[in-house]
Amino acid sequence: MPQLRLDELLEELQARINAARGTRDRVHSLLEAVVSVGRELDLPQVLRRIVEAAALLVDAQYGALGVIGPDGRTLSQFLTVGLGSEEIAGIGPLPAGHGILGELIRHPEPLRLTDLGSHPASYGFPAHHPPMKTFLGVPIRVRDEIFGNLYLTDKRDGQDFDAEDESVISTLSVAAGVAIDNARLYEASQRQQHWLRANAEITRSLLSGSPRLEVLELIARRAAEITGAALADVSVPVTGTDELVVELAVGTDGDTRRGLVVPVDGTLSGAAYQAGAPVTTAGLAGDDRYAAGPRRFDGLGPAVAVPLGTEAKDTRGVLLLARRQGEPVFTDGELEPLLAFAGQAALALELAQRRSDAEQLALLEDRDRIARDLHDLAIQRLFATGMTLQSAARLIDHEGAAERVGRAVGDLDETIKIIRSTIFGLCSREEGTGPGLRARVARAVGEAATTLGFPPRLSMEGLLDTDVPPRVADHVMAALTEVLSNAARHARATRVEISLKAASGEVVLTAADDGRGIPAGGRRSGLRNLDERARALGGSLEIERPAGGGSRLVWRAPLPPGPAG
Fold first, then answer.
1. Residue 58: strand pairing partners
2. Using CA atoms, how far apart are residues 53 and 38, in angstroms rounded to an integer?
3. Distance separating alpha carbons of residues 505 and 312, to the nearest angstrom
4. What contacts 298, CB < 8 A, 6 or more positions away?
5. Is the confidence at residue 453, as pLDDT, over 50?
6. Edge-to-edge strand list for the sheet holding 243-251
7. Is 389 helix (H, G, I), strand (E, B) or coil?
8. Of residues 465 and 514, which shows the higher confidence score?
9. What is the pLDDT of residue 90?
10. Strand partners for 28
11. 443 touches 452 (CB < 8 A)
């Protein structure tokens, strides 16, 4: 009996020693996990280490960390361990925070379950999801807010999660909250430095007189780099319409988005433009509120649109930033520097406009001087020379010589007409009747560089401002606008050439590009409009497909005899 009692005591002592050793080892593991988590300053790495350490500490087969989104009701991020990439892909979309996961969001307290399926909040598992039974969930607090939750399922030894497991994970969650807070502070300070450097770079670019588009591209690229956005574009309003045109786009599908025309109503950029304030979404591709216009957001998730201006009435455009699906939503801490950055963009647009106005004023003053010189010097001398030759022709007896002098006088008259047409074009702003056709065409072609992404080549010939009557000129401008719009939307060209000529009793508009051409039998409504306009004036539309590729459109309309009234 004494021997048996001694054996029992020795076994009990050994069990206590093993338990103490196990507790010691677990405490060491917890301390190592805390140190490992606190060592990182990169937030994504911190989150990954937290969920890996949690699964290791309680020997869980599966673990996850869900980050609660700005709405406080759903998960904006979901990191997992124990599942392979193929398993994750087979399960489908990541959880949004319903069922058991949502239970911890609604009631942020530790939760242990022996059987997941028996809980009233359980929704079951989606197809291809591995079976899970036991569960341990613990919230992660960062200061006074619930940052997210740790979810652990199925211990490898098949046992239930016990109170000690809960205590260990709760302790880890406290250390995780401190590590996340430190990482976010470090991330904010780094981001602030990036914004300051970007602002300084933009200021230098503005002061050096860089072109407007170049400054906007710099703004878009830096904003995308700092915020981790996959897409950044700048949209500006289309005058006289309720639409925006994507003037510049970088990143995902940037080439296809550039020149895209979208409505103000029903789009994220349009909402920011109307409100004069930032507008965010957790998933751009699937947000029904912003489903209007062409779809160009496949694979994109969280997004923010920031107006370029201080008030709604002063908004000059919108900066749109979008991250990939599954990435974090834009937080309030990110919006504040974004607004300051958007102010830089608005300043760029304002300075570019002022610079353009100053250059236009200088150009107009120069045109006035040239017009005066042409009128006071060139025309008067040509007229006097013509009168002299006309008088001399009456004194010439040789018929051939007299005929040549007569032709010279006629050429001088034609030259005077051309110079007068040029003067009218230069001074049309002072006549109270609006700009002439030549100036309107030049302006329209110049503005098309925004949507095309490059400046078209333009050549004009003939007395466009005097021989083309206003009604025909309006049709010419409508046809030109349609041609340029088709080239921007459909041609995918890298070169566009526009030619306008008034001669031999007709006005001819020719547009050629090196794009993908017009498919045979694929007449679009725009081409039909061009044809109808030409026929309404008694003209025609010719569509050619050069052997080297691209397309060539020739739009022509007859001109009435005599000067335009």
1. none
2. 12
3. 50
4. 285
5. yes
6. 261-263, 243-251, 231-237, 318-324, 300-307, 279-281
7. helix
8. 514
9. 82
10. none
11. no
HSE toward the beta carbon, residue 45, CA cutoff 13 A: 10
Q: How far is the C-alpha of 190 from the C-alpha of 99, rounded, in Å?
A: 37
**What is the number of other CB atoms lying within 10 angstroms of the CB of residue 290?**
22
The residue-averaged pLDDT of 243-252 equals 84
Q: Which two tokens stand for residue 435?
A: 């700009």
Cβ-Cβ contacts under 8 Å for 444 (sequence gap 6 or more): 477, 480, 481, 484
Helix axes 163-207, 212-227, angle to 10 degrees: 170
Q: How far apart are CA 422 and CA 374, in angstroms?
A: 9
132: left (phi over 0), alpha (psi -120 to 50) or beta: beta
Cα distance between the two ends of the chain = 132
433 alpha carbon, distance to own chain's centre: 39
Angle, to 10 degrees, between the axis of helix 437-452 and the axis of helix 470-486?
Answer: 10
Q: What is the mean pLDDT of the chain?
A: 78
Per DSSP bridges, beta strands 496-503 and 457-462 are parallel
Which H or E run includes 508?
Answer: strand 506-513
Q: Which residue has the tokens 């790495």?
A: 45
> Residue 343 above 90 pLDDT?
no
Contact criterion met (CB below 8 Å) for 466 and 424: yes
The model's confidence at residue 554, banded by pLDDT at 50, 70 and 90, is very high
**Residue 428 near residue 465 (C-beta atoms within 8 A):** yes
3-state secondary structure of 354: helix
Q: Looking at the chain, how many residues does it have? A: 565
Axis-axis angle for helices 163-207, 43-57 (nearest 10): 170
How far from 534 is each of 382, 462, 553, CA to CA, in Å?
38, 20, 12
- Determine contact, residues 509/556, Cβ cutoff 8 Å: yes
Across 66-71, average pLDDT: 81
369 phi and psi angles, rounded to 5 deg: -65, -45
